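== Polypeptide entry ==
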Amino acid sequence: MQADPKLTRTGIVTAREHMQKGYVLLAVSVDDRPAFKPGQFMMLQVSGTYDPLLLRPFSILDEHDGAYRFLVKITGRGTQLLAGFEPGRRMFLTGPFGNGFPAALRSSAIVVAGGVGIASVFSFVQQLHRKGTAYKLLYGARTQDDLVLLDLLDPYRPVLSTDDGSLGHHGTITDVLRAGITGRPSVFACGPLPMLAAVKDIAHEHRVPCSVSLEARMACGFGVCLGCTIFDTKGRTRRVCKDGPVFDAEEVSFEKQAAQPY
């Protein structure tokens, strides 16, 4: 089954920036440049042939100089090919997909990102900053080599942490969250499942709302293939692409997710 033609796009790579080892920032000028909500994603072509066949999901980092930017972490053959796309390369995309983060908040926000999860929350932080909403950005990774986009993040004064202590707080970003959460903020997070489970627990202890953006393998991006299903706390299956990727953390059963292959 084909995607809705209105969601089918063509794009041209306008810039490619090699960051630290294994990371590339790709700028793509998309036809019609549809409006997107922070936290939404697009499905990107990674090859000019049918091998690999499937598109790959990437959060829309932001819109810059008339193009969407995507953070690519090289983890396999598909992302290796995508990272090799040079400026001028035409490519196929679908989207934007997903619900994204809320446009308005009643309180301050704490935004927690782990590793490449920063790509999902980046434009959301931009939105909070632009609107003058009080927020804190907490960003952690295993080592300083996995803390990316630091130059772009500088205006938002992120609190950094690394598991090995190579940069920022020595420990996990959830340690930072637990030690620093005060008042009645809304918490938003994207990162590895164990991190999101810990964020959920901390928010639950403090009785504050928490939204999490989930990552999952996808084949279509619009709810047909069912490849990105997760379990909620009522035992139902939910589609990350169609019902998410942003969910109320209280609705997500992280214990069941941990047993699922991602």
